[in-house]
User: Fold this.
Amino acid sequence: MTLGLSGLRSLVRLIDSLLQPTPLNQQSVAINVPQARADLLDLVAQLLGVLQLAAWGGIGLYLLWRTGIKLRLIGLDGTRKLADSLGALGLAAIIGIPGLGLYFAAWALGLNLAVQPSTLDNQWWMSVALILAAAGNAWAEEVLVVGYLLTRLEQLGWRQYTALVAAAVLRGSYHLYQGFGGFVGNVVMGLVFGFYWQRTKRLWPLVIAHTILDVVAFVGYTMLRGKVSWLP
Assistant:
């Protein structure tokens, strides 16, 4: 009902793109788009999207709590602030730099659509909305795909590496709308993030690192759009 259904919709969008006469790398897809003509209504709509993402993560935490899994058991307590922050910076660097290279390579090879992280106009609230959207994405994805799903698969007796691959493929599936590069890049991210969590049982570094990556992508794109030639 949440990211699983998003994965199926994403697959449909990719198939639709492949059926077009235009090559993938000559098509584009936007992530954060205007949702209303009126400025304030658009802001409200953007914030409602963030609220939905927060609720998705909350549902996962609630279901875990119902079975006795407390926040500290999945690494959402505040006992290791410095270590979690350093871990987040390391994960962001490991994923961010190679991930950008993979995206441009896939796009150049015709395996990916041109991804536009944001097509919002320069409203006064744009940067704040994009930062909140980044945090919402990070929260929903890491809580559900890592904290919830890997915990549940472990309870069901799945082997660690089998569960890790399954969660990573799920993460990649709801990015299929971007093309094959988006799928592969997010599967790799899922493997790295999931492996880190399985070894440390700390979820905050994943949430923070994911937020950093999305903030750089969303806000950075809006700042560079139209000013550099290498951005689609």
Q: What stands out?
A: The longest strand covers residues 28-32. The mean pLDDT is 96. Residues 131 and 215 are 6 Å apart (CA to CA). Residues 126-155 form the longest helix (30 residues).
